[in-house]
Input
Amino acid sequence: MTKIAIIIGSTRPGRNGEAVAKWVQEIASRRSDAEFELVDLLDYPLPHFDEPGSPARDAYQMDHTKAWSAKIAEFDGYVFVTPEYNHSTSGVLKNALDYLYNEWNNKAAAFVSYGGVGGARAVEHLRLVASELQMATVRGQVAISLMTEFENYTTFAPHDYLLPLVDTMLDQLVSWAKVMEPLHASEEVADDEPDEDAA
Output
């Protein structure tokens, strides 16, 4: 079964992202074409990138990196739930992306954003980062306005007109994740093969 992570891209006290991500998870749970799991960056506390080598080499030294790598490697695609900070995504989400490389490769990605203009500018930055990490980003996205979908900017109260946008995004994400599964599956097999030079 195709596995999709819904990643909460904020860790600040009083964050709005948890409510948004749980709303996406609830909608996704009605589907039978994939399994969806909430992944909270609070559960994977990562300091500013502190590995001595490049993530592309897979030679992780830190336990927190190994735990994050193992979790992200489980999935075939990702929904990134992001706030918009200063026309970009949150520092904690960017840092979490930077920690890994191969684990993201040949996977599908979609975005749910929230902010003053729906978080659209954060997603534009994330699309560039995802492309460099060799993720395929789907066109469908959900941009949520703090002014119309939150009571007093803090209590998430989404309107029903957003539901078709979520469904379209998930349709595209699951389709792309399934198409790309053989690509990253073949890479995992290659990584598991013994190194003849080391034998």
